[in-house]
Specification:
- The complex is a heterodimer of chains A (136) and B (145).
- Chain A has a domain at 30-74 and 85-125: Sandwich (Immunoglobulin-like).
- Helices cover 0% and strands 37% of the residues of chain A.
- Chain A is mainly β and 136 residues long.
- The termini of chain A are far apart.
- Chain B is an alpha+beta fold.
- Chain B has two domains: 1-34; 36-84 and 95-135, Immunoglobulin-like (Sandwich).
- Chain B has helices spanning 3-6, 8-24; strands at residues 42-47, 50-56, 65-70, 73-80, 90-94, 99-106, 117-121, 124-130.
- In chain B, the strands form two sheets. A four-stranded antiparallel sheet of chain B has the order 1-2-8-7, with no helix packed on it. In chain B, strands 3-4-6 form a three-stranded antiparallel sheet, with no helix packed on it.
- Chain B starts with a helix and ends in a 15-residue tail after the last strand.
- The chains are: A mainly beta (136), B alpha+beta (145).
- Chains A and B meet through β2, β3 and β6 of A and α2, β1, β2, β5 and β6 of B.
Chain lengths: 136, 145
């Protein structure tokens, strides 16, 4: 049994900082917890968006700013009253500035069990173009 | 009480549980968000028929999640596995955690275990816990003689 006995901890959620766009929804907006990996060919982004599905997640890439937003439908708790709360339901919003050129046509986005997985392939041509410096 | 020094963690947990239960019935605490003692963070919804417990657990496969109800306790345990990322990948940012978790929630009533329902959708777990009929308050009519 080489399984590592690592216990999970509850992570504190941060509220999304005020953006230049005013929000029109009377709900809090959180920064989703995100992992970013980079390989030679692509950038992989994993974001925790509990309650979001393929219809409510919105991913846009404008210039080199990638923005992820998810509007969460509140839990259907008709007939019940909230007695005790350890988390708040809210929307998610986060922007990333990408340093590499991304092949926009081949971006893949999958949402499964409340986790968004983004695959951003790098543009091949952006690979090293060496300029030889000559002495005059 | 001599156990208190030998196994402090259990007593601490039990004290915590007691405090949580007290808060549950405290009306003045409405609208407050409490710190979660352990993963996952839960919300408790109530009505006369029972409770609804919800937890946000993104990235957990339903097969890695175990929900048990015994009498008046609900336990949620499982493992959040790290996503399979290529070994040579360069890590820029890691905020999401992974590992084992287990949490037991003491309920203020006995549960009708046959009617418990649990659903897991888009990373949100919802457990419906109906109160057992035998545990419900019985209305007694007062007759005049």
């Amino acid at each position: 049994m080489a399984k590592k006995e690592q216990a999970m901890e509850v992570q504190v959620r941060e509220e999304s900082p005020a953006e230049d766009v005013e929000r029109t929804r009377a709900r809090r907006c959180f920064v989703p917890k995100t992992d970013i990996y980079e390989t030679d060919n692509e950038i992989i982004i994993l974001a925790d968006l509990p309650g979001a599905n393929d219809k409510t997640v919105d991913v846009t890439l404008e210039k080199n700013v990638l923005s992820i937003s998810a509007l969460i439908t509140p839990l259907n708790s008709a007939g019940y009253e909230l007695a005790y709360a350890e988390y708040e339901q809210g929307d998610y919003q986060r922007n990333f500035r990408l340093s590499d050129e991304i092949d926009r046509e081949k971006i893949e986005a999958v949402v499964r069990d409340g986790v968004l997985r983004l695959k951003l392939p790098k543009v091949k041509e952006a690979a090293v173009k060496k300029i030889t410096v000559k002495t005059s | 009480m001599y156990h208190r020094f030998r196994m402090p963690s259990i007593w601490q947990d039990m004290d915590q549980l007691q405090r949580e239960m007290n808060r549950l019935f405290d009306v003045s605490n409405q609208g407050r968000v409490f710190n979660s003692p352990s993963y996952p963070a839960i919300n408790i919804w109530t009505n006369e028929e029972g409770q609804l417990i919800s937890a946000e657990m993104p990235g957990i496969r339903p097969e890695d999640l175990e929900v048990d109800v015994t009498g008046d306790a609900l336990s949620i345990s499982g493992e959040r596995k790290a996503d399979g990322i290529e070994v040579d990948a360069h890590l820029h940012r890691q905020e999401r955690n992974s590992g084992l978790f287990s949490r037991t929630i003491q309920l203020p009533f006995m549960v009708d275990t046959n009617k418990v329902e649990a659903s897991f959708k888009d990373g949100v777990l919802v457990v419906t816990l109906p109160r057992a009929d035998a545990d419900k308050p019985k209305k007694i009519t007062v007759r005049q003689k």
